[in-house]
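User: Could you go from structure to sequence for me? I need the amino acid at each position, not a summary. Structure tokens:
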């Protein structure tokens, strides 16, 4: 394999449930030219009818989760809405080693853990809903969760929204296409950061100076 031309980055999108993060994630992954790979989390949450095991999550039992965690095979993990969620470490390391970028849909607890481990390689974006009533409407439209689950998610949303100050970028998702454009712009700029492209540019500069 050729040496990567730059370091891969970890692009973390977080938001309260229903703020549009899942749609943005799908749009990013469908754009093949962006060459983003989604980190598929493991979770002890029950699968929703629209979800496919191994694509949206790997759905596993609590004992299996605990054994992955205790063997150090998770890059980060957290309890969210009463369920355990975690990021398997190996697939992330493999993609980054190729100089390619990994996309994460994880919460603020996970974002903080990944940043603590690899501060230079992490870019975090927080997606805010335009209003709480819009957030509730989106959760109800999804209609996949029971009423008490929706109420719990709204309560948790208030707690999550307070975490916006710990992120690199914040997007208010009042227009999906514009938000998508904003995420792409952030990614494009972050990919060009000097620290990430330094090895390639150093060689070019040597050639320029020798010319
Ligand atoms: P949901 O149950 O709606 O799919 O996800 C609930 C929350 O868990 C979302 O905020 C999502 O970003 C977060 N989440 C999903 N996977 C992970 C993970 O692997 N680690 C952490 N820390 N949070 C996760």
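Assistant: Here is the amino acid at each position, in order:
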């Amino acid at each position: 394999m050729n040496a990567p031309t730059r370091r891969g980055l970890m692009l973390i999108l977080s938001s309260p449930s229903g703020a549009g993060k899942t749609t943005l994630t799908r749009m990013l992954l469908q754009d093949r030219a962006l060459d983003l790979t989604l980190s598929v989390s493991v979770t002890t949450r029950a699968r929703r009818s629209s979800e496919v095991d191994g694509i949206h999550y790997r759905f596993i039992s609590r004992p299996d989760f605990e054994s992955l965690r205790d063997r150090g095979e998770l890059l980060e993990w957290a309890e969210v809405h009463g369920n355990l969620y975690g990021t398997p470490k190996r697939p992330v390391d493999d993609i980054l080693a190729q100089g390619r970028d990994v996309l994460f849909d994880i919460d603020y607890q996970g974002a903080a853990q990944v940043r603590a481990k690899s501060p230079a390689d992490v870019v975090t974006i927080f997606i805010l809903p335009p209003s709480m009533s819009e957030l509730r409407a989106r959760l109800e439209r999804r209609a996949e969760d029971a009423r008490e689950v929706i109420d719990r998610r709204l309560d948790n949303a208030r707690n999550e929204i307070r975490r916006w100050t710990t992120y690199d970028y914040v997007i208010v998702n009042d227009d999906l296409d514009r938000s998508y454009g904003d995420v792409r712009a952030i990614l494009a700029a972050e990919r060009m950061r000097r620290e990430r492209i330094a090895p390639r540019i150093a060689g070019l500069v040597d050639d320029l100076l020798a010319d």
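One structural detail worth keeping in mind: The longest strand covers residues 74-80.
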